[in-house]
Write a structure and sequence with these properties.
The chain is α+β, with helices and mostly antiparallel strands. Helices cover about 30% and strands about 25% of the residues. The strands form two sheets. Strands 1-2-3-6-7 form a five-stranded antiparallel beta sheet. The longest helix has 18 residues. It binds ligand GNR and nickel (II) ion. The site of nickel (II) ion (NI) has 5 residues, from helix 2.
Length: about 170
């Protein structure tokens, strides 16, 4: 297992579009294990491969209290969505920033699990929000892009300043 480093907004590489996984093999299983370790160590509820600079359609999530319920989504597609909900979101790639985002309230997702087996999931609540947040990452989109240009620019300068002070 290995801890991976997480890209920070406004890193250009966060805007890369991820490619589908062709085969869920040992390499992908290692990536899943490393992403899970990185997510747990960073106290996130989800992590997309894009955030660790791997541009393949792999997402890990764990919304459980005990952090013992890892969910893996490979080549995930939202096939149905309905309703609208708002939630205050954060992102491991945008440390210290929390902003309200509007998304679909309910989504149906088709994906492969960590063994490459297809499954369908109907999600609502935080699970639905997190899935949409992670699938955005795989399309090169960070949640701050839903905010006004003014807010985006403020967040960019704040993070650039922080980055400077930690180098
Ligand atoms: O840890 C995370 N919390 C969170 C809270 C509200 C909406 C989305 C998220 S996902 C985030 C981890 C992360 O950055 N995943 O890409
Ligand atoms: Ni994120």
């Amino acid at each position: 297992m290995a801890l991976l480093s997480i890209l920070h907004y406004p890193d250009e590489r966060l805007h890369t579009v991820a490619k589908p996984v062709e085969k869920v093999d040992a390499r992908i299983r290692q990536l899943i294990a490393d992403m899970a370790e990185t997510m747990y160590a960073s106290r996130g509820i989800g992590l997309a491969a894009t955030q660790v600079n791997v541009h393949e359609q792999v997402v890990v999530m764990d919304l459980s209290e005990e952090k013992n319920d890892l969910q893996v989504f490979i080549n995930a597609r939202i096939t149905q969505h309905s309703g609208e909900t708002t939630h205050e979101e954060g992102c491991l790639s945008v440390p210290g920033i929390f902003e309200t985002v509007t998304r679909s309230e309910q989504v149906t997702v088709e994906a492969l699990d960590g063994e490459g087996k297809p499954f369908t999931l109907e999600a609502d609540g935080l699970l639905a929000i997190c899935i949409q947040h992670e699938l955005d990452h795989l399309q090169g989109k960070v949640f701050v892009e839903y905010l006004s240009r003014l807010k985006q620019n403020r967040i960019k300068s704040k993070l650039k300043k922080q980055e400077k002070n930690t180098l």
